Amino acid sequence: MSTEYELDDAQLAADLAARAGDLLLELRARELGETSLSKEAARDLSRRGDTDANGLLLRMLAEHRPGDAVLSEESADDTARLAAPRVWIIDPLDGSREFGLPGRVDWAVHVALWERDRGITAAAVAQPALGRVYRSDTCSAAAGERPRPRILVSDSRPPEFAAPLADRIGGDLEPMGSAGAKAMAVLRGEADAYVHAGGQWEWDSAAPVGVALAAGLHCSRIDGTPLLYNEPHPYLPDLLICRPDLASALLSGIADLTGAAADSPRVAMAREYLGSLLSHDASKVRLAADCFRVENGRRTGESGSEIVRELETGAQYLPLTAIRDLTFTEFGTDVVARFQLDMSVGDETHTVSLTEHFAIPGAEIAAITAIIEPAAR
């Protein structure tokens, strides 16, 4: 092992994030430049970035921290991490959609170290397009100077309560990509809070939270409870990062404005899959490599990659227009979804009833079994 990294986990996190960021910048400049790509080409570019950056990070961690476990967005979850005293939690490319769009700088690389009984002990967030790397051992939060608090939210999944929450505290909402980009904007004093409630995973927030906490910012779930990492199921759906003086008002406002129970991790995974039937974007759908799909007793998918490809490009999904009356039942490691599915056939809309059974033993969907019936009249 290189002595350069023997004692300094934060420096290693920063070095890894920076090197992955350089790789992504080179790939982006070569393939994207200043021109817009088609939706499919942009998605392919983002996936190449995810894969290449993940490979680099895994190689470097194997070289410099061979005894540590890794939890990565782009790798299958190895439950051996649960017994490990040290786990690196990485997101090789956070904000993959923005990465594939020319001119966007709101994408990032996340590298964090979790240690048993200590939580996140070292973290770095790189924003390559800005030429910046933020690390937990050297960061500090800048004070924002504005009469109305600026609240950052996801530009694709803003919380339903975001607008009334902003009105309640006299603030303004602004969408932005990448959890890391939003958290670091609060760190720089360019915003006052980042609120999220649309579903996330541990790798989305571990490094941003590690840096933000070290800088003295407030970080918690939206109900005020602590953010816990290296959990058996790495789904961590909501997040609040803000100036400490705003935390009480924001948490109180969120509590008053929310009432519905959040999805469980497995229900959230099933909901993500169903959403991709309409959006044709399966980038956030987690399927095991050997996942299969069965419809009315007939195999329609033999691997996770095949199912993803069909969700995004399959002609059979293009006529689908709406999912209605959706309910979930969860028992053990299984989730059953029942809903009405609308599809366009010429000038008409046809509806079928679906029951989809999802087997989710861990952090990936292992099997999908669908029963499709005529809709009750």
CATH class of the largest domain: Alpha Beta
- Strand count: 16
Query: What do the pLDDT scores average to?
Result: 92
Major sheet size, sense and barrel closure? 6 strands, mixed
Distance N terminus to C terminus? 68 Å
DSSP summary: helix tally: 9
Strand ordering within the main sheet:
12-11-16-15-14-13
CATH topology of the largest domain: Fructose-1,6-Bisphosphatase, Chain A, domain 1
- Strand proportion: 25-35%
Estimated structural class: alpha+beta
- State the shape: globular
How much helical structure, as a percent, in the residues? 25-40%
**What is the chains' assembly state?**
single chain
Going by CATH, what is the homologous superfamily of the largest domain?
Fructose-1,6-Bisphosphatase, subunit A, domain 1
Secondary-structure element pattern, one letter each: HHEEHEEEEHEHEHEEHHEEHEEEE
- Tell me the radius of gyration: 21 Å
Q: Tally the structural domains.
A: 3
Low-confidence stretches: 1-5
Return the CATH architecture of the largest domain: 2-Layer Sandwich
